[in-house]
Write a structure and sequence with these properties.
Elements lengths: L4 E8 L3 E3 L9 H11 L4 E4 H6 L10 E4 L10 E4 L2 H15 L4 E3 L3 H7 L5 E7 L8 E2 L8 E9 L9 E8 L5
Parallel strand pairs: 1-6, 1-7, 3-4, 3-6, 4-5
Antiparallel strand pairs: 2-8, 7-10, 9-10
C-alpha cells in the first residue's frame, strides 16, 4: 500500500514560483498553511530548494533531498539522485512513520518531473503576476486534475498579496 503523493506550492498568476533562489513574496498566512500540510510527513525537495531556506531541514518532517551531487549531504536528511528513487524512499519513510501522505515541496524542475506521479495538488494561488521570476510551476491540466476545494484568503498584515488556497485531485483514469 502506498500513501498518496502531493505537491505543495505557491504560484503567481503567471506561473512564477521563485526568483533569485527564493520566493518573490512574503506570505505569512501561506507559510502557516505549508507547515500544517507538511508537518509529520516526509517531504521531497531539490537541493536548491533546501538551500533557499537556509540549507537545514525544516523541523518535524523527514527530508528526502534530490541532488546529482554524490558528495552532498545534510545531517538529518536522506539524499538521492533521482525523482522516482526519492519518491520510493519517501514512501518507505511514510510507511515506517505512519504518515498519511508524502509532500513534494519543490522546486520548479522537481515539480515538472513529478507532475505525472502525484495524486493531489495543494496550490496557493498568489494574486499577482511576478514580472521577473525565474522559476515556474507547470500548468495544471484540468483534464488531469479537478479542483475540489478553493478558499479565498485576503492578505493578512504580514502578507504581500491576497491568495486562494486550492486543492486539486487527480481525475480517475479513463480507458
Amino acid at each position: 500500500m502506498t500513501v498518496p503523493v502531493s505537491i505543495v506550492v505557491a504560484v503567481a498568476q503567471n506561473g512564477v514560483i521563485g526568483r533569485d533562489g527564493g520566493m518573490p513574496w512574503k506570505l505569512s498566512t501561506d507559510l502557516r498553511r505549508f507547515k500544517q500540510l507538511t508537518i509529520g510527513k516526509p517531504i521531497v525537495l531539490g537541493r536548491k530548494t533546501l538551500e533557499s531556506f537556509g540549507g537545514k531541514p525544516l523541523p518535524g518532517r523527514p527530508h528526502v533531498i534530490i541532488t546529482r551531487n554524490r558528495d552532498f549531504s545534510v545531517q538529518g536528511a536522506v539524499t538521492i539522485d533521482g525523482v522516482e528513487k526519492a519518491l520510493a524512499k519517501a514512501q518507505e519513510v511514510a510507511a515506517e512513520t505512519g504518515a498519511a501522505e508524502v509532500c513534494v515541496i519543490g522546486g520548479g524542475e522537481v515539480y515538472r518531473q513529478v507532475m505525472n506521479l502525484v495524486d493531489v495538488l495543494y496550490v496557493t494561488h498568489v494574486e499577482v503576476a511576478v514580472p521577473d521570476g525565474d522559476t515556474f510551476f507547470p500548468p495544471i491540466d484540468p483534464a488531469v486534475f479537478e479542483k475540489v476545494e478553493e478558499t479565498l484568503v485576503p492578505a493578512g498584515e504580514r502578507d504581500d498579496y491576497p491568495t486562494r488556497f486550492a486543492i486539486y485531485r487527480r481525475r480517475p483514469a479513463t480507458n
